[in-house]
Amino acid sequence: MVTRPSSTPYDLVIIGGGPAGCAAAVMAASVGLRSALIERRELGATLRRVPAVGNVLGFATGTAFADAVTADVLRVADSCDVLLGTPATELHADDEGVTVRLASGAAVHGRYAIAATGVRAARPDEAGWLDSAVDAPPPLWEADAARLAGRHALVLGADRPLGTLLRAHPDTPFDLLVPHPAADAYKADEVRADPRVTLHRLDALDLRPAAEGRIAAGGLGTFAPDTVFVNLGVRPAALPGILAPTPDGYCPPDRQHPRVLTAGDLRSPRAQRIMTATGSGAEAALHAYYALRLNH
């Protein structure tokens, strides 16, 4: 890992150290490209929040997969400069190459870029069925299962992290009240048989401060602040600059500047899975490789 980028342009600048970005770095190294991988946290940070996976070859937990991915990236450190801890803030491109601006004020230059910044948790103010006058609760994937055991908790929305939490802790005595809109019905069906979940399909819900610092959830009762979580799905985390999003904020590859590739969950709301993200990152790196060969 390095603390500052090279002054010489890289063949490939990769933004995002999740499964797509890490796969891109490993693939780039395998075909002789020199790359920089920019990640604001640790490699595989999002993977480490997934306590159980059932669709990743060879791994049963996100943490185990993240450890393996990190080891693979470190193995190719001679070809890939890993820049951790400083977020990328802007991505720009022209016919000559790309520039990624960092929050530190530094700039990373390259011939091609892969944007693999993924998605973030949706906020209550982005859910049309919620009217909230309280601070945004944390996402469900940050919940401490042991601390929730035996407590009455409120989960706003029935997105898939709910099923992941239940599968990862089959013997934990959860008591989860889950109001959700009609759009989440097909996801709610995946957990409906679990006795630890009470589902409420509704059109609207108000969140308001209540006595003793609690949170009132319409007619569903009041809850301690540390037992309320959002589970409302995700929104794309696109960088400002050259990226060309669709109206929903996602950045499909076919809309981007020729020097900019997108990979992972940032591409589309469909196929947001670890395995598809990994494959798209590797494919994007190969795209850059062949483009560079053809331009020689």
UniProtKB/TrEMBL annotation:
Residues in FAD/NAD(P)-binding domain copies: 10-157
PANTHER family the record matches: THIOREDOXIN REDUCTASE 1-RELATED-RELATED
Protein name: FAD-dependent oxidoreductase
Transmembrane intervals: 12-33
Highest rank taxon of the organism: Bacteria
Oxidoreductase listed as a keyword: yes
Catalysed reaction, written as an equation: [thioredoxin]-dithiol + NADP(+) = [thioredoxin]-disulfide + NADPH + H(+)
Pfam families named in the record: Pyr_redox_2
Gene3D superfamilies: FAD/NAD(P)-binding domain (3.50.50.60)
Keywords: Flavoprotein, Membrane, Oxidoreductase, Transmembrane, Transmembrane helix
Native organism: Kitasatospora putterlickiae
Glycoprotein listed as a keyword: no
